[in-house]
Amino acid sequence: MTTATLAPVAQQPIAIPVREILPWALFTVLLAVLAIYFVGAEQGATSLVPGVYIHEFVHDARHLLGFPCH
């Protein structure tokens, strides 16, 4: 019996066009900015939602990320 060994085939990386990545990148940036706003600045004069519901919902995340809130 003989064993055959195959030489590794050099594979070229797949090129992903920027047009396919750009909408997902913009969507990700938008979600990140909204998350940072609601965790870091949704209170007081900059509040978009009246009341303290958003502030209380993200209260622990504010402290975890180092945002002051008291």
Secondary-structure map with pairings?
Layout: H1 18-40, H2 53-57, H3 59-65
Describe this structure as you would to a colleague.
The protein is an all-alpha fold and 70 residues long. The chain has a domain at 43-70. It contains 3 helices and no strands. It has helices at residues 18-40, 53-57, 59-65. Keywords: Membrane, Transmembrane, Transmembrane helix.
Biggest β-sheet description: none
What's the overall geometry? elongated
How many beta-strand runs?
0
- Overall pLDDT level: 84
Order of helices and strands: HHH
Total count of helical runs of at least 4 residues: 3
Helix content: 40-55%
Give the end-to-end Cα distance, rounded to a whole number of Å: 77 Å
How much of the residues is beta strand, in percent?
under 5%
Low-confidence stretches: none
Return the structural class: mainly alpha
From the alpha carbons, calculate the radius of gyration and give it in angstroms: 24 Å
